[in-house]
Amino acid sequence: MTDKKEQKKFINEEEINIDYDNIDVADIMDQIKRKIATQPIKPAEGDLKNEALYSSSGPSPAGPEEPSVTKAKVKKLLLRVMKPFSPIIKVMILPVHQEIQNNFDQTNRRLDFLNEKLEGELGKIHEKLDHLNQATNKRVDLAFEGLNKALEYTKLLHSLSHNIVVELTKLKIEQENLKVKTRIMEKDFEFLGRKEKAIEKEIFK
User: What are the sequence ranges of the domains in the chain?
Assistant: First the structure.
């Protein structure tokens, strides 16, 4: 941020206006040329040396005045002004710009192709998932139906086993009663047998 402010300050000092949002190289070059043309005329370094020699020996001969800004100074000024824009200028001037554009186009086409392919694959996956969900739901429904039937059978078996236990208990009680009755009848038969023998003895005396 500081570098950008310094660059703007330098450009304002040189009275060259640059729109960073919309860079116009031709307009910048024209401003530099106008700036060079409006600068005051000064003798060149070589002329100063010659002038010093002539002044020591005698009056200097009259000659045409040269521009005050040398080629080195113009080049330095151009480099300083154009330095922030050198990457953009290289991209705009060199064939790399077209190559990059072609690469971008190929990349975009490749991305579009991959995007369409991905959407197709996702659609297939969604269809498969729908089929799997339907099959799973059917199996789950069948499993619940089987579970409900098993629960009903379990209830019936529980009720049947309970009834069997009740009946077995009744039979056991009845069996005990029959055993008691049988023992009583056996005792009665023994008593009747002894009584019969006693009567026979009384009769056959």
Answer: 2-94
